[in-house]
């Protein structure tokens, strides 16, 4: 009755008011009498008018900007994925994407399209939006600095850091002496040009370095602590020097710049002595809370904006103010994590790629059009590497580091990445760098960042060490080893319960390793230990309840699926257990479309198609992450579809064909270790027609007569399935079940899908 009542009300209201609107509009026509109404007559038909209007809309500044953002994000993510696959930081791919969208590639081969996508009149909007992204990013960089580590390890770190600045700075000034006459812009003093060349040679990309340290599994070592501290000290020192250089360039002389530097010192003092204690008090009030109220967020954003505004007005650039605002944020890990999460995604994913493209639009590789310029580019790269790499390495060796650690520090400190582009763009905006020098320096930034990974590999090879800390956690013996890889804490508990049931009575001859991998882009150097604790505390609590000892493995990575497979394949494990993930499109109409289209446009699946691992039209019953793990693992793998698995007392195992015989080994383990009751379903009369299966079942019945029940029903009753805790099925049989859309699949319990 209520539904009919609502329907009647809806019809009366919408219908009645529609009639009223029509009546008012009709009466309103009479009001036009006596007024000159100008109706623009058009000779074009309606379709042509529509196309004209559409073309006009496409040329609107907002439409152009939105189109640019869509293109930039898509291309940046694609290039980032490509470079991650070849072992490089994704930021390198995004920088290359920016260059590709600029005059060096897109503008060179498709000038008409480039002029439509990036008209000159639109570049101002792109620049200002990218600057907002940079301000937010520098704010995050400031927050990522762990000043407590800097205090504790300041002695050696400051020596190495300052040496890694002074040496390349001096070499940069020396290089400026030889190229100033030909390449410095007209009207720019040698002091300004040389100082910018010096500071450009001295930069280290702290964010990229920190992620490489995490991915290389050295962040917990003494070397990792030293290099992170060096990079932090380098960042602070370099930005202070850059602020002074900007002041000198803008003032025109060193003496005039003293006024600017004096104001800058006053500004820093106010931030440290007044603003920082105030923010700390706010942080102390909210350090136990899981989220920040809007007024508190407003206070911190206002601090960021005021700091950036003040530093810009003083003349030391808004980015220094953003960095300073981040550095004085309350040093409470939880507080910083919440705030970084609010800011980082917008800055890194949405706005920062705009900066890369804006830099790419300024980078004209076509200007480097003769051998001399390429030789000069090589000389710039050589000076940068000698100054930063070897300068840092020699300083590290001087303070007592081994040659291997010293060279590793040098290779990492030589990483320039995004921070170098920030400095170069500031120099370009100030008119200190010409387009040729800017382009050569961008190439230098790319080369010195790209070489970091190979340089570290070469150092490790020379000193015959292994970079991956994988097998160290697992004893090399004949024990039955299970590796659990988890992302979700609840799934981790279910996986551990299952693993425990497989080895409960064989603890002395078995090991369980729980592993969690996180994307390095989502980790921050200041709270790695906190993240690890947060991830493993629930599963460690569960292991205590089960009285099951486990080993933990926490790793940063750029490719979770590949690393899971590599660790499992090379770790001498007997079984890898993972949970089934879910697609973000699952259960939607878009998901039904993308279920096919992602098989076409997904890069990983295209690779598998061309290598013959998967047919283009093959339908996978798994999400993309699980599918990748299945395809890359070379050892037994179990995929758990978890339906709140608590116990493994009743287990249902369907046998479809002779290849399913290996499932009986897991049945035996569950019976022996967990006293599980196993229900084995003979789908195709395998019990009598296959000797291996028949022998295995006879052995189980003989040894565990009370734990084995044989079945040959073709249809499973819902009541029976409801009493089961777990179903174990082979991978191929599971695919057949999904393809056949068996009606009893909707009633099954948790499922362990095993690939032998």
> What radius of gyration results from the CA coordinates?
32 Å
Instruction: Determine the structural class based on helices, strands and strand pairing.
Output: alpha/beta
Give the tally of structural domains. 3
Largest sheet: 10 strands, mixed
Summary of the model, kept short:
By secondary structure, the protein is α/β, with parallel strands linked by helices.
Describe the structure.
The chain has 756 residues and is of the alpha/beta class. It folds into three domains: 373 residues, Na+/H+ antiporter like fold (Up-down Bundle), CATH 1.20.1530.20; 121 residues, Rossmann fold (3-Layer(aba) Sandwich), CATH 3.40.50; 109 residues, Rossmann fold (3-Layer(aba) Sandwich), CATH 3.40.50.620. The chain contains 32 helices and ten strands. A ten-stranded mixed β-sheet has the order 3-2-1-4-5-10-9-6-7-8, sandwiched between helices. Strand 9, helix 32 and strand 10 form a beta-alpha-beta unit. The longest helix is centred in the middle third of the chain and has 33 residues. It is globular, with a radius of gyration of 32 Å.
Describe this protein with a few key phrases.
single chain; transport; Na+/solute_symporter_sf; Rossmann fold; Na+/H+ antiporter like fold; 32 helices; Cation/H_exchanger_TM; 8% strand; 756 residues; ion transport; ten-stranded mixed sheet; alpha/beta
């Amino acid at each position: 009755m209520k539904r009919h009542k609502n329907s009647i009300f809806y019809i009366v209201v919408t219908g009645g008011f529609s009639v009223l609107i029509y009546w008012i509009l009709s009466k309103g026509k009479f009001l036009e009498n006596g007024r000159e109404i100008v109706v623009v007559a058009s000779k074009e038909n309606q379709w042509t008018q529509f196309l004209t209007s559409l073309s006009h809309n496409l040329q609107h500044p907002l439409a152009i900007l939105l189109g640019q953002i869509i293109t930039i994000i898509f291309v940046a993510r694609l290039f980032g994925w490509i470079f991650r696959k070849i072992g490089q930081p994704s930021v390198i791919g995004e920088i290359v994407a920016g260059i590709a969208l600029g005059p060096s590639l897109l503008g060179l081969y498709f000038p008409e399209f480039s002029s439509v996508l990036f008209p000159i009149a639109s570049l101002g909007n792109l620049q200002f939006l990218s600057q907002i992204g940079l301000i937010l990013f520098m704010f995050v960089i400031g927050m990522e600095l762990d000043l407590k580590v800097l205090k504790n390890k300041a002695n050696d770190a400051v020596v190495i850091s300052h040496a890694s600045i002074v040496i390349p700075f001096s070499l940069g000034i020396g290089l400026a002496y030889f190229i100033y006459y030909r390449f410095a812009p007209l009207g720019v003093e040698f002091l300004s040009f040389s100082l910018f060349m010096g500071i450009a040679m001295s930069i280290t990309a702290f964010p990229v370095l920190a992620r490489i340290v995490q991915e290389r599994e050295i962040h917990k070592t003494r070397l990792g602590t030293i290099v992170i501290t060096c990079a932090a000290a380098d960042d602070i020192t370099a930005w202070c020097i850059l602020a002074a250089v900007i002041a000198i360039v803008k003032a025109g002389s060193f003496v005039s710049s003293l006024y600017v530097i004096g104001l800058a010192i006053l500004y820093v003092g106010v931030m440290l002595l007044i603003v920082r204690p105030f923010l700390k008090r706010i942080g102390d009030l909210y350090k136990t809370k899981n989220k920040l109220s809007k007024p508190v967020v407003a206070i911190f954003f206002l601090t960021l904006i005021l700091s950036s505004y003040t530093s810009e007005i003083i003349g030391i650039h808004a980015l220094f103010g953003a960095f300073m605002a981040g550095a004085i944020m309350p040093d409470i890990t939880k507080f910083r994590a919440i705030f970084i999460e609010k800011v980082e995604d917008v800055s890194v994913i949405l706005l920062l790629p705009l900066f890369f493209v804006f830099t790419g639009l300024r980078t004209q590789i076509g200007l480097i059009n003769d051998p001399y310029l390429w030789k000069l580019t090589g000389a710039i790269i050589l000076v940068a590497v000698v100054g930063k790499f070897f300068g840092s390495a020699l300083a590290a060796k001087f303070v007592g580091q081994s040659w291997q650690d010293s060279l590793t520090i040098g290779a990492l400190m030589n990483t320039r990445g995004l921070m170098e582009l920030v400095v170069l763009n500031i120099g370009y905006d100030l008119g200190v760098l010409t387009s040729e020098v800017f382009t050569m320096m961008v190439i230098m930034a790319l080369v010195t960042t790209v070489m970091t990974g190979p340089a570290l590999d070469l150092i490790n090879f020379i000193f015959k060490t292994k970079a991956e800390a994988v097998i160290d956690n697992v004893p090399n013996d004949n024990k039955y080893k299970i590796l659990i890889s988890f992302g979700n804490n609840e799934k981790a508990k279910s996986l551990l319960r299952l693993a425990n049931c497989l080895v409960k009575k064989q603890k002395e001859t078995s090991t369980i390793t729980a592993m969690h991998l996180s994307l390095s882009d989502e980790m921050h150097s200041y709270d790695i230990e906190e993240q690890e604790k947060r991830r493993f505390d629930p599963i460690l609590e569960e292991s205590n309840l089960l009285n099951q000892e486990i080993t933990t493995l926490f790793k940063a990575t750029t490719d979770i699926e590949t690393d899971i497979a590599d660790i499992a394949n090379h770790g001498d494990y007997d079984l890898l257990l993972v949970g089934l993930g879910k697609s973000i499109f699952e259960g939607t109409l878009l998901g039904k479309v993308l279920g096919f289209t992602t098989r076409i446009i997904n890069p990983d699946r295209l690779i598998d198609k061309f290598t013959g691992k998967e047919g283009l039209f093959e339908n996978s019953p798994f999400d993309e992450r699980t599918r990748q793990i299945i395809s890359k693992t070379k050892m037994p793998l179990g995929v758990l579809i978890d339906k709140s698995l608590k116990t493994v007392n009743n287990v249902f195992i369907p046998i479809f064909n002779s290849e399913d015989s290996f499932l009986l080994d897991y049945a035996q383990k569950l019976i022996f270790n967990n006293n599980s009751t196993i229900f084995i379903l003979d789908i195709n009369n395998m019990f009598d027609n296959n000797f291996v299966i028949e022998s295995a079942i006879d052995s189980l019945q003989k040894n565990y007569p009370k734990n084995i029940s044989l079945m040959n029903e073709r249809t499973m009753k819902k009541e029976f399935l409801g009493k089961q805790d777990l179903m174990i099925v082979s991978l191929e049989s599971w695919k057949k079940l999904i393809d056949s859309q068996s009606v009893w699949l909707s009633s099954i319990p948790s499922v362990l899908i095993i690939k032998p």
